[in-house]
Each structure stands twice: as structure tokens, then as C-alpha cells.
């Protein structure tokens, strides 16, 4: 006779809610049922990874993860598996039921937000993770390789995820442990151009918002009869120069990564150490320099 633990896993994979309910009712101690041959994934891990919301709802109602969030041997939670596999409905259910697990991270230092950014099918889950009232995900959190969710979204080619993360305050100039920004992981030239336009658009909005706030403050001060200091032309020019410097910094950072033909791009986040680039091409080797006739010294030595 097949063991109850095996029958339960098969019933979950068949998405048979009634069969799962009957097996657990007759064998309540098999509710979590970790599979030690498969990274110790529990019943909820299995249902979440395959995107079965009805079975997940049943398992939660029976007390699965009521006391402690289950993790497998990779320290993945069921929410992480749902995010990794693009199961938006299950991911939303788990984020609402167990919001405290949203900031949890696995052995690679990745949380549910980073995994959702990796999978275009989980893009709609990103705002839910970012906007949770009690345990919101952080847009700039870094994994063990230094990659942010923006790095993963850029590598996955999810343009919508890029826009959501930038609107949430993600830093487009953040560098990972290999000194690469998210822009360097763009899958195509078109995606890179779109990403650059997004960054410039967000920066323009920030500057417009700052100017609007300053103007509103001046109007309030004038209406309240407070003293308003007159700004000299020199100070205005200095302020304009400051804004120009900020824009130049961003432009310079963007240009350093803009040459899809001449420069080799890094591998995707987590896919190995990328080959580092030299700004002016490969540096010359002294061993290849032509020597002077007679003494055998190189020009570098004689200079």
C-alpha cells in the first residue's frame, strides 16, 4: 500500500482538493509533510510552486504555517516559490496571510521581491510586496552578490517591473559586487534605451517636484506675512549649476554602460562573475612593445 505521505503529494500535484482534504483528515500529522528527497519542501511549498490557490487555502485553513513559516533546505518560503514560478494568485494569497515572511531571505540573500523581479509572470506581485502595511519589501535590498531587485528585473527583461521599482525609489545607479549597475544587464538594446529613458523621466519628475514644493513654500510664507529673502542672480546661477551637475553625474553614469556593440556585457545576476571592462579598451602589454635596436631595451624602459 502506498504511504499516506506519498499519496498526499500526488493529490496536491493533481490539484485534487477533495482528495487532499480526505487524506489530511485521516492523517492530520501529515499536514506539512516535508519531502526530504526534495529540499524538505512542505505541502504548502508544493502547492505554491505549482500555483494551486484552492489547495493553498485549504492547507492554511487546516493550520499549515500557523505557528511558524515553513522553509525548505534552501531557506525558501512558499511565498518565494510562488514568486519564482510566476504564480501571482498564490503569491498574493500568501503575502496577505503571512505578511511577516515578505522580508525573509533565502541562502542566496534573495527575498520574495527579488524573485518576483526575476520572473515576468510575477510582475503584478511586486506592488503587493512593496505596499504591505506591516512588512513592506525594500526596493533597494541586496542579495549576497550585491544585486538589487532592479538588477534582476533588468536581466529578466521585465520593462513593467523596471518602471514599478523605479517609481518605488529603487536606485538605478546601485552597483553589485562586480561593480555593475542594473542598466548593464539589459537584455536588448531597445530595453536599455527604454531603461535610460525611464531613469531620465524619474529624475525630471523629482526635480519638478522639488521646484513645485519650493514654490508652494514661498507662497505660504508670503501669505503668512513672513519674511522672504530675495535671491540674487548669482545664487540663482549657482543653484542652476548644482542641478546641472546632478544631471551630468547621471548622464555620465549612463554613458559608461552605453555601447552594446563594442563592450561585452556581464552575465545575468547570479550567473557567474562577469568579465570586467576597460574604459579605453584592453591595456597594452609591455612585453609586446618594440625594443630599440642595439641594447634590447624597450621604449618604456629607456624613457
From TrEMBL:
<keyword id="KW-0040">ANK repeat</keyword>
<feature type="repeat" description="ANK">
    <location>
        <begin position="39"/>
        <end position="71"/>
    </location>
</feature>
<dbReference type="Pfam" id="PF12796">
    <property type="entry name" value="Ank_2"/>
</dbReference>
<feature type="repeat" description="ANK">
    <location>
        <begin position="145"/>
        <end position="177"/>
    </location>
</feature>
<feature type="compositionally biased region" description="Basic and acidic residues">
    <location>
        <begin position="292"/>
        <end position="303"/>
    </location>
</feature>
<keyword id="KW-0677">Repeat</keyword>
<dbReference type="InterPro" id="IPR050889">
    <property type="entry name" value="Dendritic_Spine_Reg/Scaffold"/>
</dbReference>
<dbReference type="Pfam" id="PF00023">
    <property type="entry name" value="Ank"/>
</dbReference>
<dbReference type="InterPro" id="IPR036770">
    <property type="entry name" value="Ankyrin_rpt-contain_sf"/>
</dbReference>
<protein>
    <submittedName>
        <fullName>Target of rapamycin complex 2 subunit AVO2</fullName>
    </submittedName>
</protein>
<feature type="region of interest" description="Disordered">
    <location>
        <begin position="259"/>
        <end position="303"/>
    </location>
</feature>
<dbReference type="InterPro" id="IPR002110">
    <property type="entry name" value="Ankyrin_rpt"/>
</dbReference>
Amino acid at each position: 500500500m502506498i504511504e499516506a505521505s506519498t499519496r498526499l503529494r500526488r493529490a496536491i500535484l493533481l490539484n485534487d482538493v477533495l482528495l487532499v482534504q480526505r487524506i489530511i483528515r485521516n492523517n492530520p500529522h501529515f499536514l506539512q509533510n516535508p519531502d526530504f528527497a526534495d529540499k524538505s519542501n512542505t505541502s504548502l511549498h508544493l502547492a505554491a510552486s505549482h500555483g494551486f490557490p484552492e489547495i493553498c487555502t485549504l492547507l492554511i485553513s487546516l493550520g499549515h504555517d500557523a505557528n511558524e513559516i515553513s522553509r525548505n533546505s534552501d531557506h525558501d518560503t512558499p511565498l518565494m516559490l510562488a514568486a519564482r514560478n510566476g504564480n501571482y494568485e498564490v503569491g498574493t494569497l500568501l503575502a496577505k496571510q503571512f505578511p511577516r515572511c515578505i522580508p525573509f531571505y533565502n541562502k542566496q540573500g534573495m527575498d520574495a521581491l527579488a524573485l518576483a523581479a526575476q520572473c515576468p509572470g510575477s510582475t503584478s506581485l511586486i506592488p503587493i510586496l512593496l505596499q504591505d502595511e506591516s512588512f513592506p519589501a525594500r526596493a533597494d535590498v541586496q542579495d549576497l552578490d550585491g544585486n538589487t531587485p532592479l538588477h534582476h528585473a533588468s536581466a529578466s527583461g521585465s520593462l513593467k517591473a523596471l518602471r514599478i521599482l523605479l517609481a518605488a525609489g529603487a536606485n538605478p545607479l546601485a552597483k553589485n559586487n562586480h561593480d555593475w549597475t542594473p542598466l548593464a544587464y539589459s537584455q536588448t538594446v531597445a530595453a536599455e534605451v527604454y531603461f535610460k529613458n525611464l531613469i531620465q523621466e524619474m529624475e525630471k519628475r523629482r526635480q519638478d517636484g522639488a521646484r513645485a514644493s519650493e514654490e508652494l513654500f514661498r507662497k505660504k510664507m508670503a501669505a503668512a506675512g513672513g519674511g522672504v529673502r530675495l535671491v540674487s542672480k548669482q545664487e540663482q546661477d549657482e543653484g542652476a549649476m548644482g542641478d546641472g551637475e546632478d544631471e551630468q553625474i547621471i548622464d555620465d553614469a549612463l554613458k559608461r554602460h552605453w555601447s552594446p556593440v563594442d563592450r561585452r556585457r556581464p552575465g545575468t545576476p547570479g550567473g557567474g562573475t562577469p568579465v570586467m571592462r576597460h574604459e579605453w579598451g584592453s591595456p597594452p602589454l609591455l612585453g609586446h612593445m618594440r625594443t630599440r635596436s642595439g641594447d634590447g631595451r624597450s621604449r618604456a624602459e629607456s624613457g
